[in-house]
Amino acid sequence: MKRIGVMTSGGDAPGMNAAVRAVVRRGESLGVEVYAITNGYKGLVEGEIHRLTSNDVGGILNRGGTMLFSARYPEFKEKEGQLKGVEQLKKHGIEGVVVIGGDGSFRGAQSLSNHGFPTIGVPGTIDNDIAGTDYTLGFDTTVNTVVEALDRVRDTAGSHGRVLVVEVMGRDAGDIAIWSGLSSGAEAIVIPEKPFDINQIIKDLKDGFAEGKNQGLIVLAEGVMPAAELVRQIQEVDHTFNIREVVLGHIQRGGQPTARDRVLGSSFGARAVELLTEGKTGLCVEVVDEEIVTNKFDDIFNNLKHEPKLHLHELNKFLI
Ligand SMILES: Nc1ncnc2c1ncn2[C@@H]1O[C@H](COP(=O)(O)OP(=O)(O)OP(=O)(O)O)[C@@H](O)[C@H]1O
Ligand SMILES: O=P(O)(O)OC[C@H]1O[C@](O)(CO)[C@@H](O)[C@@H]1O
Ligand SMILES: [Mg+2]
């Protein structure tokens, strides 16, 4: 394999640039030319493809976002869009592609693979919602950003005797909420994977105030309901709380990647190129117990299940 493409797709995630840099530099060391496909599958279909050299990826390791830009492009779910993508790749003499993105992006990569075009996936999403891997690229940075925000929120909540409901991202997964909630001593962590009892949350908050706490922090995963709705539900049962909601939003997705995400991005990117040069396709690089492993897209979609760390959610209840 002499020429490969690399793209980022779906929501950007801190560490994607580290992965792109590793694809380019490990590729060069293996004698492979690397081409950027910008703006995800939209750019692929529209032929936004250009050569990337070692120099082009200098100074990006420590930068958030993605230098290749990203897009959501539902048209790629249709066969017509996919075949246009394959056509563009052939036109540019590209023989394999590394797709850095989330589960949706992997569906796109799998479709290219099904059309006979070699693809390898790198799990790049803040949501940590991909089956088979302990962590996705960007999750660690996002959790650290959220924890910093929660520490700030606690300061102001404590100054006013308030309860604050903080909505965090994660789509249908509660991982960001679990990790950031445990790290900041949240009085409650509400996630999609576990039913919650509003009366228990209210009791815990009241007990906390009765024991001398001057604030209550509820970390709510966006996949459950909007923060304003949980505030409404709490007030419906007990209107005595001084309560506010905070939606952290896209601040969670930006910023410099942590060392962990830089290392993960570098390891994932390098391994992805190696796999293409070994003639592999339809696989995703993943990390299990600190080792880089691979899983088939098919298994990620059909056989493996993403397991949120529910024991950490349980643990938090003993610590509040
Ligand atoms: N079933 C599918 N078949 C082909 N392509 C798909 C499919 N689903 C998604 N894609 C492509 O992948 C892109 C990204 O998917 P999606 O918006 O779900 O984000 P993601 O990769 O899961 O990342 P994140 O969840 O972190 O935002 C879509 O805009 C579309 O171009
Ligand atoms: O940036 P957008 O397109 O609004 O998407 C937001 C979604 O993307 C993510 O940030 C990453 O998948 C989710 O946590 C969130 O639900
Ligand atoms: Mg996704």
TrEMBL record:
Keywords from the UniProt entry: Allosteric enzyme, ATP-binding, Cytoplasm, Glycolysis, Kinase, Magnesium, Metal-binding, Nucleotide-binding, Transferase
Organism: Atopostipes suicloacalis DSM 15692
NCBIfam families, A to Z: PFKA_ATP (TIGR02482), PRK03202.1 (NF002872)
InterPro entries: ATP_PFK, ATP_PFK_prok-type, PFKA_ATP_prok, Phosphofructokinase_CS, Phosphofructokinase_dom, PKF_sf
Assembly: Homotetramer.
Catalytic activity: beta-D-fructose 6-phosphate + ATP = beta-D-fructose 1,6-bisphosphate + ADP + H(+)
Lineage: Bacteria, Bacillati, Bacillota, Bacilli, Lactobacillales
Enzyme class (EC, first level): transferase
Binding site for Mg(2+): D103
Binding positions (ATP): G11, R72, Y73, G102, D103, G104, S105
Protein name: ATP-dependent 6-phosphofructokinase
Pathway where it operates: Carbohydrate degradation; glycolysis; D-glyceraldehyde 3-phosphate and glycerone phosphate from D-glucose: step 3/4
One GO term of the biological process aspect: fructose 1,6-bisphosphate metabolic process
Matching PROSITE patterns: PHOSPHOFRUCTOKINASE
The protein's required cofactors: Mg(2+)
Compartments where found: Cytoplasm
Chain residues that bind ADP: R21, A22, V23, V24, R25, R154, G185, A186, E187, K213, N214, Q215
